[in-house]
Specification:
Distance between the termini: 27 Å
Number of strands: 21
Largest sheet: 7 strands, mixed
Radius of gyration: 25 Å
């Protein structure tokens, strides 16, 4: 059997590569094993190919969810966004702030992949990819009392004193996502919070959605929330109508907090007092109601909204002919649109996975399993999920950093 590595990382994505580089640059002998033929596919496709690699506010644990959102606080403080930005600058990668603190590459996401690869090369990381892991076995500690993990792979047996699981979640299986990390966790007695899709479009039953399917492509700024989810935030983002339901940043954000069978609440005309505006415009107005509504929401939506049975009688009337109570009720319907999705577009369209390895079994300072010395979990495989906009990449960097810094430390 070959000389053991100090560390083996399973998973060559954002968290896995970064953890390997941090540990390797501390002088540890590190190997990375991954079953997929291409490195960091999720980085490549993220942000429309520009990679939203962090967010300037991503050190705020309040913008992460899971069974214990506070768990993320330690790692995020240890490795805040500015530190990853410094690394990006050192590699000469141009970037810009696009929206609400979201940082994107000026050029291709390939620059971030190349940066991580270069950092791993500096650390003399050994690569085993594509390479399937068939089994993970925990052996007796060595003479020095160090843990010992044996990986049975298609390339042979690999041995290490520490094992980092950075296999990601179930989102986007076409780029290699599997449940392997959850299986390792359960094998070693760690609890796994049931995974589900997040940052994903919401769908509705075809019959019920048919009146709105024709609005596919219509986009508008909204305020949106999941009123039945405890402590769920309210988001001010853009919403997009699709043939099957709703998408856009607003819906992706709320999807993390939505539960099957529960409604979402959408304010289609946020800001100001729509009822007061309509009533104030009523006196002597000759325009039709649809034309006035089209000043606050897209015309196609205004027309479609007034075609609903509740408002059809108002559609062809001039505004001056509509009573104040009717206008107030119409405004209320637009300001608090309650609808119950039938589901989501699933893991194939989800940007991340909610759930994963329960944080109650991990040390937030190191990401090590409390009951299994030498076993670590980082990144998306853990039950920590951030908002849309670079938060989940920052969690990958931060959790990987604290693990890479702690392994082998005395």
């Amino acid at each position: 059997m070959s000389q053991p590595f100090d560390l083996i990382v399973i998973g060559a994505g954002a968290a896995g590569m970064f953890c390997a580089s941090v540990a390797g640059q501390r002088g540890l002998r590190v190997a990375v094993v991954d079953h997929w033929p291409r490195l960091a596919e999720k980085i490549r496709i993220s942000g429309g190919g520009r990679c939203n690699f962090t967010n300037l506010s991503a050190d705020r644990h309040e913008r992460f969810t899971g069974e214990d959102p506070r768990f993320a606080r330690t790692a995020l403080r240890a490795y805040p966004p500015r530190r990853f930005v410094e690394l990006v600058r050192r590699h000469g990668i141009g970037f810009h702030e696009k929206h609400k603190g979201q940082l994107f590459c000026d050029e291709s996401a390939e620059r971030i992949v190349a940066m991580l690869r270069e950092e791993c090369e500096r650390a003399a990381v050994a690569w085993h990819r594509p390479c399937r892991v068939d089994a993970v076995v925990r052996r007796e500690p060595d003479e020095a009392g160090r843990p010992c993990f044996e990986l049975q792979t298609e390339a042979g047996v690999l041995v290490a004193h520490a094992l980092v699981v950075a296999t990601g979640g179930l989102s986007i299986p076409k780029v290699g996502a599997t449940d392997f990390g959850y299986r390792i966790a359960r094998q070693f007695g760690l609890r796994v919070v049931e995974p589900r899709p997040a940052l994903v479009p919401l769908t509705f039953d075809a019959a019920g959605w048919s009146p709105f399917a024709e609005l596919s492509g219509v986009s508008l700024p909204v305020r949106i929330g999941a009123p039945q989810a405890p402590a769920a935030p309210v988001f001010d983002e853009d919403l997009l109508f699709t043939h099957r339901g709703l998408s856009g940043p607003a819906v992706l954000q709320v999807s993390t907090f939505w539960r099957p069978g529960a409604p979402i609440a959408v304010d289609l005309a946020p800001g100001g007092d729509l009822a007061a505006e309509l009533i104030a415009a009523r006196s002597g107005a000759r325009a039709q109601l649809a034309s006035l509504l089209a000043m606050r929401v897209p015309r196609r939506l205004a027309t479609r909204w007034l075609q609903q049975p509740a408002w059809a009688a108002l559609a062809d009337r001039r505004l001056a002919e509509v009573g104040n109570r009717e206008l107030a009720a119409l405004a209320a319907s637009l300001r608090d649109w309650r609808l119950v999705p039938s589901g989501t577009e699933g893991f194939r369209k989800a940007e991340v996975t909610v759930g994963g390895v329960a944080t109650g079994g991990l040390d937030p300072r190191t990401m090590q399993a409390l009951a299994v010395p030498g076993l670590y979990f980082v990144g998306e495989v853990v039950d920590v999920t951030g908002w849309l906009g670079g938060y989940n990449f920052q969690w990958a960097w931060a959790s990987a950093f604290v693990a890479g810094q702690s392994i082998g430390a005395r």
